[in-house]
Amino acid sequence: MIEEFARYYRLAEPTFKLTPKTVEFDVNRIKVDQPSVKKDLMMLIKRGCVASYGMLSTGTVKTVSVGDFGDAIGMFIARIAEMTHTSSTKWTPYLHGN
After folding, report:
1. Which of 16, 33, 40, 67 is in Cβ range 3.0-4.6 Å of 6 for a Cys bridge?
2. Does residue 98 lie in a domain region?
3. Which residue has the higher pLDDT, 18 or 8?
């Protein structure tokens, strides 16, 4: 799942209009053993596409539940959508000011 997220991230990357703040996290909590997958996971966490303390990053089981899968997909899609659209002060609440 992490490898697929990284693949889709790289496909969408040329269309990014926004660079979000880097997400800080404790690398020692990551439970992924494969170096290439761990590298992808850390990139996705830093960009806010995967939860830093979620099933994919710190979970100890090899499978995910339907709910966890839905949460991971939803978070990923929401972040990609956020990074690929041009923010507007009219439609983006945190750009409204006061």
Report:
1. 40
2. no
3. 8
Total structural domains within the chain? 1
In a domain, 67, yes or no: yes
Identify the pLDDT of residue 1: 92
List own/partner pairs for 64-68 with CB under 8 A and 24 or more apart: 64/1
User: What's at 96, amino acid-wise?
Assistant: H
Residue 81 · residue 48 · CB < 8 Å: no
Which tokens belong to 30? 């990551």
Residue 25 lies inside a defined structural domain of this protein:
yes
Residue 25 CA to residue 87 CA, distance in Å, equals: 26
pLDDT at 92 over 80: no
Of residues 92, 93, 97, the one with CA closest to residue 17: 92
Average confidence (pLDDT) over 84-91: 77
Q: Is 22 left (phi over 0), alpha (psi -120 to 50) or beta?
A: beta
* Polymer length in residues for the chain: 98
